[in-house]
Amino acid sequence: MVKKKLIYLDNAATSFPKPEQVYQKMDHCMRNIGANPGRSGHRMAIKADEMVYNTRETIKKLFNISNSENIIFTSNATIALNLGIKGVLQKGDEVISSSIEHNSVFRPLMQLIKKGVRVKFIPCSEDGFLDPDDVEKAVTDKTKLIIVNHASNVTGNITPIKEIGKIAKRSGAIFFIDAAQTAGNISIDVKRDYIDMLACSGHKSLLGPQGTGILYVRPGIELNTIIEGGTGSSSESENQPELLPDKLESGTLNTVGIVGLGAGVDFILKTGLDKIRNRKVFLTIKLLKGLENLNGIKIYGPGDAGKIVPIVSFNINSIDPSEVGYLLDERFGIMTRVGLHCSPLAHKTIGSFPKGTVRVSLGYFNTEGDIDYLINSLKNILKTKA
Amino acid sequence: MDKELKEECILVFQTTHRTLQAENILKKEKIKIKIVLKPRSITTDCGLAIRFNAEDKDVIFKIIKNNNLSLMGVYSRSGEKWIKL
Ligand SMILES: Cc1ncc(COP(=O)(O)O)c(C=O)c1O
Known about the structure:
CATH architecture of chain B: 2-Layer Sandwich
Order of helices and strands of chain A: EHHEHEHEHEHEEEHHEEHEEHEH
Number of helices of chain A: 11
CATH superfamily of the largest domain in chain A: Type I PLP-dependent aspartate aminotransferase-like (Major domain)
Order of helices and strands of chain B: EHEEHEE
Strand content of chain A: 5-15%
Strand content of chain B: 25-35%
Number of domains of chain A: 2
Shape of chain A: globular
Number of strands of chain B: 5
CATH architecture of the largest domain in chain A: 3-Layer(aba) Sandwich
Number of helices of chain B: 2
CATH superfamily of chain B: ACT domain
CATH class of the largest domain in chain A: Alpha Beta
Bound molecules: pyridoxal-5'-phosphate
Strand order of the largest sheet of chain A: 2-8-7-6-5-3-4
Helix content of chain B: 25-40%
Radius of gyration of chain A: 21 Å
Largest interface: A-B, 23 and 18 residues
CATH class of chain B: Alpha Beta
Structural class of chain B: alpha+beta
Structural class of chain A: alpha/beta
CATH topology of chain B: Alpha-Beta Plaits
Oligomer: heterodimer
């Protein structure tokens, strides 16, 4: 029997593989610097402190953040989004969000609606685009928070955040972006883009390990805490410390994960975000071209590699997406993600609810050969299914 | 210079992050410093402090000011005690 190739095309869920230095740094850290940062003050603990500090300093460069103490480590984007959303909003507050949000934004907002927060979900176009003009029309001087998905994990469509950020600034609302799909994929500058708060995963395009996420909070924004506990600082006080990052980082940090995240972001900075973006656009063009030539294909989203992060959702004929996903994996060793991608709202918007789509998401380490192989495999499936 | 400062001194910041930030900046400026545990008589924190030589005091204060670092306190040792300056 011919040995099956294994091709990973699910980078929007989590990136794989990671750059070599991520594995090496984590291995080194776990073997040699296993102490608890911020706690004990012995030499190994200080070393751990320094490694966490260095990762913050590395991340700061990627997003043009002024002070790395405004970068909070979490275990994923979901926790970061919850800390941010629930830290800002109180009963009676008005929020603007969109119809392409991931459940990690949608569900916390739905929960807060039960507690008296008012949310306007702005409808997006059928290809999943949020028009800043529609945000402008919805905003009032009572709007406390505007939270939007920077790029849809279903269609890849990139939201023009700078335009929305300007609207937020003018109206006095806090501007919070869900950058889970964009951090490490396209340029984000918290100053240029008027970003007050940003949440993202560390384990997707930032190339860190699972169990890492980031919340950025602009100086001047005071969040309420939803988690309190040991921080290693001001231990004598009964109250949670007011200073960041301690205020929002109770409990032992994921030092090994954070070190891996630092190595991932360092890889991005050294390689150059432009180079990474160009490579992914190049591969996405090839992917779109290949898909467009298949019979009976429906591609969701704008179908323009320049307008999306490397995520493409599609359906073929009326074959159930889960069957396509199963056959790709079972027969050809190609790993995609099918279904609703934790975003029923987005699938309703693009008209693929409740069946969902087949989603292919590329990473920096995918090759042209991977895409040829995918397209040929899809042709094969079409032939046997016809 | 007052006598107290001939002895060793420490800088204390509110968070570990701010302590390491100051450490990095001072090291870049080639100031001789060392990360130590905050003395228990100053705070019950499990935090860190930066030890420095008294004669570098003025330069250090200037660097702290230029870099907008918010210092919590400076202490110098007098026998077993730490005195806030
Ligand atoms: C747009 C978007 N937001 C949030 C998340 C949640 O990320 P995490 O799994 O790191 O919590 C994801 C990833 O699944 C996503 O695609």
